[in-house]
Write a structure and sequence with these properties.
Layout: H1 9-18, H2 20-30, H3 35-54, H4 58-66, H5 71-119, H6 126-136, H7 140-153, H8 169-174, H9 183-187, H10 191-206, H11 211-230
Helix pairs in contact: 1-2, 2-10, 3-5, 3-7, 5-6, 5-11, 6-10, 10-11
Length: 231
């Protein structure tokens, strides 16, 4: 597939959601770019972060974040946050998103590449798997939109940082209160993650991976992410 006949970004964006099978079948030949989708996702998550942190007073933000801190350490933690100030914390959040998202996708791509080498399917380079990592993460755009809507319709300071998304499994379905067993585990799960798994599953299948192996490989990032957040 030549550059002149490669689908446009809009076409790829449409198909990755509406027709993931067709998108996946041409994925390795079309080689869709990663800059625009990556910038879109980073920007979307920055907007969520800004809207969320700006929706509450600084005291409300501090109170939410001190809940899990040991009582003896709360004064020091509060002082640290007050030194940064709300603007400083918002700025740190923005920078963290811009740094962490590409790093996570780069590490995920490494996992996909190693799985590709071990499985014996058609060998693809690291750039191909980084591309797959980026494009399969695009459902995060819907998470971001839902997060902004959730913040705007909720009382300021009433949303736990883990429950910003409207599609969060705990917030949407289970309603497990903060501090109860399973709260962190289920709050770390989001329905958009399963959408991402399906997109990556389709790409892996298009590369000759078996269905069972494709599901396992595609679910690795979510499983690791949930495990880390649930600790």
């Amino acid at each position: 597939m030549t550059e002149s006949t490669s689908p446009s970004f809009i076409k790829n964006l449409s198909d990755v959601f509406a027709n993931p099978s067709a998108f996946s079948q041409r994925f390795f030949d079309a080689k869709p770019g990663v800059i625009i989708p990556l910038v879109l996702m980073i920007t979307a998550m920055m907007v969520v972060q800004y809207v969320y942190l700006s929706s509450m007073t600084f005291d409300e933000f501090i109170a939410l974040n001190l809940r899990e801190v040991e009582p003896a350490a709360r004064a020091e933690a509060r002082q640290g946050m007050q030194m940064l100030g709300q603007t400083g914390i918002i700025a740190m959040g923005m920078v963290s998103i811009a740094i962490i998202m590409p790093i996570v996708m780069a590490l995920t791509a490494l996992v996909y590449m190693l799985a590709n080498r071990i499985s014996g399917t058609t060998e693809r380079g690291y750039v191909d798997w980084f591309r797959a990592s980026v494009w399969s993460s695009l459902p995060v755009l819907f998470l971001a939109v839902g997060g902004v809507v959730n913040v705007l319709i909720s009382e300021p300071g009433s949303i736990d940082p883990m429950l910003i998304s409207l599609t969060n499994v705990n917030g949407l379905i289970l309603q497990i209160p903060f501090g109860e067993p399973g709260y962190k585990l289920w709050s770390a799960l989001d329905l958009t993650s399963f959408w991402s798994i399906f997109i990556l599953f389709s790409i892996l299948r298009a590369n000759g991976q078996s269905s069972v192996a494709a599901v396992i490989i595609a679910a690795i990032p979510m499983a690791v992410g949930v495990a880390i957040q649930a600790i």
